[in-house]
Automatic annotation (TrEMBL):
Organism domain of life: Bacteria
HAMAP family: 16SrRNA_methyltr_A
Organism: Zophobihabitans entericus
Gene Ontology terms, MF aspect: 16S rRNA (adenine(1518)-N(6)/adenine(1519)-N(6))-dimethyltransferase activity; RNA binding
Function: Specifically dimethylates two adjacent adenosines (A1518 and A1519) in the loop of a conserved hairpin near the 3'-end of 16S rRNA in the 30S particle. May play a critical role in biogenesis of 30S subunits.
Principal subcellular localization: cytoplasm
Enzyme Commission designation: 2.1.1.182
Domain Ribosomal RNA adenine methylase transferase N-terminal positions: 25-198
Membrane-spanning intervals of the chain: none
InterPro entries assigned: KsgA/Erm, rRNA_Ade_diMease-like_C, rRNA_Ade_Mease_Trfase_CS, rRNA_Ade_methylase_Trfase_N, rRNA_adenine_dimethylase, SAM-dependent_MTases_sf
Protein name, per record: Ribosomal RNA small subunit methyltransferase A
Record gene name: rsmA
Location(s), subcellular: Cytoplasm
Family affiliation: Belongs to the class I-like SAM-binding methyltransferase superfamily. rRNA adenine N(6)-methyltransferase family. RsmA subfamily.
Enzyme class: transferase
Length: 267
């Protein structure tokens, strides 16, 4: 059978469709999520319901966001899901998660086997709603999970690590081989749990400034920050923050990036 056809659906590459079909992996993901009745569960990209079905077995209601019209239609008439689902046929990147949380009357528990082509921008979109979110469980490329959890002084540590750790506590849950999906992706995958901090440990005045500084620093990660951030900060500013200007982007902690963001004075 064509490797792109699963349960009679032709996988659409543009929507990053790789469907889970390994029961052990599916059970492990649902066990990690621990869905409970009464929680505001939201799945991004339910697809053919590989995760939706076992979650729906444990709860009375969940909301799903699916961009693919055909898949959304299949879910709407799914015999086992019935009226348990609220289906939003929309691009998750355009969803206002504050609104969803307001409607639910509680912070959201979001999960999904994310389309890899948009997983990073989608996470940034979600981070901007961090106080409407209780936690998130996502299947991602393993390399992305490595970057999310990376500590300073490692190759994987970069802009994504700083921005994600600014908002969330991040815990890798499970590694998943390509054979667990149909069609099989070319890369290894992993499931990660992201829980927004109850209190942001190092709050910045303007998140855009933190974004700008980390872009500047990591785009030139081999340079010292005296060079890469020299347009933004004086030697005295580095000194007053006790940050050695001879360090490189990967040597600075999240707290140090936040301190820089708060010391930044726009020209
Ligand atoms: N959850 C299913 C599974 O595990 O087998 C499908 C996972 S598949 C990797 C990604 C799913 O996200 C697909 O159903 C795809 O149509 C959907 N999708 C892709 N882009 C999306 C977007 N921007 N917003 C919402 N859903 C999207």
């Amino acid at each position: 059978m064509n490797n792109r056809v699963h349960q009679g659906h032709f996988a659409r590459k543009r929507f990053g469709q790789n469907f889970l079909h390994d029961d052990y992996i599916i059970e492990s993901i649902v066990a990690a999520i621990q869905p409970k009745n009464g929680q505001a569960l939201v799945e991004i990209g339910p697809g053919l319901a590989a995760l939706t079905l076992p979650v729906a077995r444990q709860v009375d209601h969940l909301t799903v966001i699916e961009i693919d019209r055909d898949l959304a239609a299949r879910l709407a008439t799914h015999p086992k899901l019935g009226d348990k689902l609220t289906i939003i046929q929309q691009d998750a990147m355009t969803i206002n998660f504050d609104e969803l949380a307001k409607q639910a009357g509680q912070p959201l528990r979001i999960f999904g086997n994310l389309p890899y082509n948009i997983s990073t921008p989608l996470m940034f979109h979600l981070f901007s709603y961090y106080d409407a979110i209780a936690d998130m469980h996502f299947m991602l490329q393993k390399e992305v999970v490595n970057r999310l959890v990376a500590a300073p002084n490692s190759k994987a540590y970069g802009r994504l690590s700083v921005m994600a750790q600014y908002y969330c506590q991040i815990i890798p849950v499970l590694e998943v081989p390509p054979t667990a999906f149909k069609p099989a992706p070319k890369v290894d995958s992993a499931v990660v749990r992201l829980a927004p901090h109850a209190m942001i440990p190092n709050p910045v005045k303007d998140i855009k400034v933190l974004g700008h500084i980390t872009t500047q620093a990591f785009n030139q990660r081999r340079k010292t920050i005296r060079n890469s951030l020299g347009q933004l900060f004086t030697a005295e500013q580095f000194d007053s923050l006790n940050i050695d200007a001879n360090l490189r982007a990967e040597n600075l902690s999240v707290a140090q990036y936040c301190a820089l963001a708060n010391a930044y004075i726009p020209a």
